[in-house]
Design goal:
The structure holds two protein chains of two kinds. Chain A contains five helices and seven strands. Chain A is of the alpha+beta class. In chain A, the strands form three sheets. Chain A has a three-stranded antiparallel beta sheet with strand order 1-2-3. In chain A, strands 4-5 form a two-stranded antiparallel ribbon. In chain A, strands 6-7 form a two-stranded antiparallel sheet. In chain A, a hairpin with a 4-residue loop joins strand 6 and strand 7. In chain A, helix 1 (4-11) packs across helix 2 (59-72). The longest helix of chain B is centred in the middle third of the chain and has 39 residues, at 241-279. In chain B, strand 5 (142-146), helix 6 and strand 6 (173-177) form a beta-alpha-beta unit. In chain B, the strands form three sheets. Chain B has a seven-stranded mixed beta sheet with strand order 2-8-7-6-5-3-4, with helices on both faces. The A-B interface holds A 2, 10-11, 13, 16-18, 27, 31-38, 54-62, 98-99, 102-103, 148-149, 168, 170, 172-173 and B 109, 303-305, 307-308, 311-312, 315, 324-327, 329-332, 343-345, 348, 380-384, 386.
């Protein structure tokens, strides 16, 4: 199901655990969509000095978290902001298609952690901020949606039915 | 490879006697049971012998009431679509439950799109349908009730005798999907008041690729496959004789060793349940232990996700099944578990452990030791575990 790179990061996750007094925290996902990811960062000289993660989720969610921390470590904040979910999936040499938008939330969590750090640094209080947690995941623009039953790309704007395999996808998909 | 199979709900081993019977059938190159010559007639005798043994196992009055199919799913599709289409002029209403296997669920969905009306009944916290709900759902238009005998995710057994009685008293056809029960727990189509009953050979340690449908004499049903007159004109197509011969042996063994089979399996299940608290904490048993199959348990491990547990166990050569959304490919939590009232997070951490004839007590301990380490490491990684335990500590 998963390739060797994904399995390696799943079995031996890097930088896992909580962090004492982090400079920024990012939290995305919820158990409804199957995955939850927390990213903790410490920043030094505008660079990500330390990074750790905690994840509730499937094999690919854990592998994504682990790969993300490896990729982000040592990067400047500006460089880290450029990291995309696709970059992480590419570094993992690919994820199963139907997991692309469910467990591939790593970059979103990292960007939130950086935002949190910048807010704290600039004295922005929580009230002025956007909600910290992204409770639902929407399809990012241009992101393709695949039928979870037969893997065929869904063409509809609001995908509720797979014409290829006649499966009802439900409104919450 | 020395895999430890605790996923017998997905695949059971063939019993040695079944294997021998099938190897013998392959080597003898039996002819087509439909042929009129001697070789064909001999093949037909073998086919009818397997049918007779199956009829005995199910308590059918006549072996002709057994139709061999290619799998449990085909049997279910045949029962539901065959009855619906043959009885359409009587009415277009069908009653089922919220926890049926997708074979039932999607067959009915297909019929709904063709104009049939379906009432799907909820289950209580124990995962069972209330027979009163069945009675209340019946209308003048109802032509079929289909409720499963045991659930494929939880192993919970439904009150089929009571439901069957109600359906029979209302002169409506009753189908039960007994794919995960037949050959393991004693059951009888007369006691269940079943007009139609689906089964699969692999559940009773026969081959995959053989299933069957009990069809009570006089039941109006269309075939799913049209063609020749095989299976008393209920299922066209040359029979899978090698598989059916293996199945006949499996049915015979099931009938003769039902008690010892049940005892072996339920001992392993009891051992797992009694030892589990010594290895892990914070779990939910989703199986109704008062009414359940002897060979399976469904457990939700709190704060962690089932697919990662399954994959880590697999790395330890231990095979189990999970019904977490991530693993099933549907990306949605199991409709069965949500029907039981489980939260999405708990439904995500579900493991199904199912025992088979080759399992031993040592296997239970091997599984528990592996599970403990995995649960510890995944919880250390889980933000849900951290949150819950911080809140508890503050209180």
């Amino acid at each position: 199901m998963y390739n060797q790179v994904v399995m390696d990061h799943f079995k031996n996750p890097r930088n896992v655990g909580e962090m004492d007094s982090p400079d920024g925290v990012g939290e995305v996902g919820n158990p409804l969509c199957g995955d939850m990811m927390h990213i903790y960062v410490k920043v030094k000289d505008d660079k990500i000095d330390e990074i750790k993660f905690q994840t509730f989720g499937c094999g690919s969610a854990i592998a994504v978290s682990s790969m993300l921390t490896e990729m982000a470590k040592g990067k400047t904040l500006e460089e880290a902001k450029q990291l995309s979910n696709q970059d992480i999936a590419d570094a993992l040499e690919g994820l199963p298609k139907n997991k692309m938008h469910c467990s591939n939330l790593g970059a979103d969590a990292l960007h939130q952690a950086i935002q949190d750090y910048e807010n704290r640094r600039d004295g922005v209080t929580l009230k002025e901020q956007e909600p910290q947690r992204k409770e639902t995941h929407e399809h990012a623009e241009g992101e393709k949606c695949y039928c979870p039953y037969c893997d065929v790309e869904i063409q509809e704007e609001v995908p509720t039915f797979c014409h290829a395999c006649q499966s009802d996808l439900g409104e919450d998909h | 490879m020395t895999f430890l199979n605790l996923d017998h709900i997905s695949a059971n081993p063939l019993l040695p006697e079944v294997k021998d019977a099938m190897i013998d059938a392959i080597q003898n190159e039996y002819h087509n049971p439909s042929s009129q010559h001697q070789a064909g007639e001999y093949a037909a005798e073998l086919l009818e012998d397997a049918r007779q043994k199956t009829a005995q196992l199910l308590g059918a009055q006549d072996a002709k009431e057994i139709v061999f199919t290619s799998c449990g799913t085909e049997s279910v599709n045949h029962a539901i679509k065959g009855v619906a289409l043959a009885n359409r002029e009587k009415g277009q209403h069908i009653i089922t439950s919220n926890i049926e296997h997708n074979a039932v669920h999607r067959s009915l969905k297909r019929l709904s799109s063709q104009g049939f009306k379906v009432t799907s009944l909820p289950v209580d916290e124990g995962g069972r349908v209330d027979p009163k709900d069945v009675r209340d759902a019946i209308t003048d238009e109802t032509i079929l009730v289909s409720i499963m005998h045991s659930n494929n995710e939880t192993g919970t057994i439904q009150p089929i005798e009571e439901i069957g009685k109600i359906v029979k008293d209302n002169h409506i056809l009753f189908h039960t999907d007994a794919v995960d029960s037949v050959g393991i727990v004693p059951l009888n189509v007369q006691d269940l008041h079943a007009d139609l009953l689906s089964f699969a050979s692999n559940t009773m340690y026969g081959p995959h690729g053989v299933g069957g449908l009990y069809v009570r004499r006089g039941t109006r049903i269309f075939p799913l496959l049209d063609g020749g007159t095989q299976e008393n004109s209920k299922r066209a197509g040359t029979e899978n004789l090698i598989g059916i011969i293996g199945h006949g042996k499996a049915a015979e063994l099931a009938l003769n060793s039902m008690d010892s089979r049940q005892e072996h399996l339920s001992n392993l299940k009891e051992l797992l349940l009694s030892e589990l608290p010594n290895y892990i904490d914070e779990y939910i048993i989703n199986t109704n232990l008062d009414h359940s199959l002897p060979y399976m348990v469904n457990i939700s491990l709190k704060y962690i996700e089932g697919e990662s547990v399954m994959l880590m166990l697999s790395e330890e050569d231990v095979m189990v099944s999970t019904k977490s959304a991530c693993a099933t490919g549907s990306l949605r939590a199991s409709h069965v578990l949500l029907s039981l009232g489980l939260s999405h997070a708990d439904a995500q951490g579900t493991l199904v452990i199912s025992f088979g004839p080759e399992n031993t007590e040592d296997d239970v301990y091997r599984f528990l030791r592996a599970l403990k380490n995995i649960v510890d490491s995944l919880r250390a990684m889980s933000p849900l575990y951290k949150k819950t335990h911080q809140t508890t500590a503050q209180e």
